[in-house]
Design a protein that fits this description.
This protein is α/β, with parallel strands linked by helices and 66 residues long. It has three helices and three strands. The chain has a three-stranded parallel β-sheet with strand order 1-2-3, with helices on both faces. The chain starts with a strand and ends in a 5-residue tail after the last helix. The model has no long low-confidence stretch (mean pLDDT 95).
Length: 66
């Protein structure tokens, strides 16, 4: 599982597309879960949090290797 921070952002959307096209499992760290609908619809699990919040990052990283 690859953790993608900023998954709903401008660059993150494109990175997520590439990872999914390559068949790689992705988890998104998102600040605003209301913006994550298209990710969830594509099977990307999302964790709500901010990269400045160590607890949220640790939760998001559980089970990730990249």
């Amino acid at each position: 599982m690859i953790l993608l921070t900023g998954a709903t952002g401008f660059t993150g959307r494109f990175v997520c597309d590439v990872l999914l096209e390559r068949g790689l499992p992705v988890r998104g760290l998102v600040r605003d879960p209301t913006k994550a609908g298209s990710l969830v619809d594509r099977g990307v699990p999302c964790v709500t949090g901010d990269v400045r919040d160590g607890g949220a990052v640790r939760r998001a990283l559980e089970g990730c290797s990249g």
